Prior knowledge:
single chain; mainly alpha; DUF5691
Amino acid sequence: xxxxxxxxxxxxxxxxxxxxxxxxxxxxxxxxxxxxxxxxxxxxxxxxxxxxxxxxxxxxxxxxxxxxxxxxxxxxxxxxxxxxxxxxxxxxxxxxxxxxxxxxxxxxxxxxxxxxxxxxxxxxxxxxxxxxxxxxxxxxxxxxxxxxxxxxxxxxxxxxxxxxxxxxxxxxxxxxxxxxxxxxxxxxxxxxxxxxxxxxxxxxxxxxxxxxxxxxxxxxxxxxxxxxxxxxxxxxxxxxxxxxxxxxxxxxxxxxxxxxxxxxxxxxxxxxxxxxxxxxxxxxxxxxxxxxxxxxxxxxxxxxxxxxxxxxxxxxxxxxxxxxxxxxxxxxxxxxxxxxxxxxxxxxxxxxxxxxxxxxxxxxxxxxxxxxxxxxxxxxxxxxxxxxxxxxxxxxxxxxxxxxxxxxxxxxxxxxxxxxxxxxxxxxxxxxxxxxxxxxxxxxxxxxxxxxxxxxxxxxxxxxxxxxxxxx
Length: 472
């Protein structure tokens, strides 16, 4: 192949030599090796085309430093092949289970699967738990993340101070890049970031200000949190029967600065509507412990008090706060009331119920589901499916046992009874060792649809059981 350091011959000369033929004319440039004139001409023409399209001459480049040595071994080949297939088929729920097993076993994803895994995690934050992704990607994953901005979540800074961009870099960056710089702090916001985030609240870009506010809300002991707590108590007060809310004035410069908002009227939007939006933002970012001792003696009492307010949805605003601040204890306290309302027909649009379920501990999720599955009619497949499909796996032992009994006792003589949906959900979340459970086998006389659903349930459980076995 042509050495790129060789001066390139003009394209017209290369073209002329190609038309005349190397038997009649010499190859433009340094003499070609004997017997290689035609090949050398093609190589030089190809190099000329690449140089033309690149717009620059090739030069020397410093090789990238290698990734650090891995401290953990790679997963067994069969397990690695399983992950590769799951990602190719976009089966993110079993892929998430694969990640959990790998973390427990202390092994890494195979190196050749890392680009697909990082791509999938960048697109799907719910099915693939990012902390698990980081653990199984290891040092090679961190190395790759430095080469592709979409994968930057996989390279959290080892030193919190090192994550802060310099003033010159921040000032010269466009809004999208400034937001990406802030997003790099999401895995590890710390007290050392408070001054930087506080300054970002006055950024010209709304997206930058919103992310800075969310990160400030997650800093324990931050002075900004105390400011928001005082403002929140001013606008949400205890009442005789229910809390009393006073929407903020959109001209309140102090509150606007604290929330990273812009005071003043908005064209086409009433001051009352803007005030309610500001109140939602304030409650969502004020420390959740603001309300203990103000609206109730503990979380449960605060949640009951918030549920009594009718003219503004304080309960949903508190749920939003739990999600924004990633507070699992508050998510557990709010889970029941919020999810009960969804099951009773409350609009899913904008509800933080699904996010609360993912944030709450597995025991709290199971407790809510078991309560909903008690009572007359709750064991019907269709009714159970409405509850169980909202509870991610792995299910706790009591919830798994209850779901298995519902499947076994389901009336199988009525096709379309939602048994198929229940089996699909349970197959991904029941303990995989249940694939040998006798009650899951089709019975004589079962309609074809019911028999197929049960066979698929067993096949999915066996698939997951094999996946676990591949790590041993």
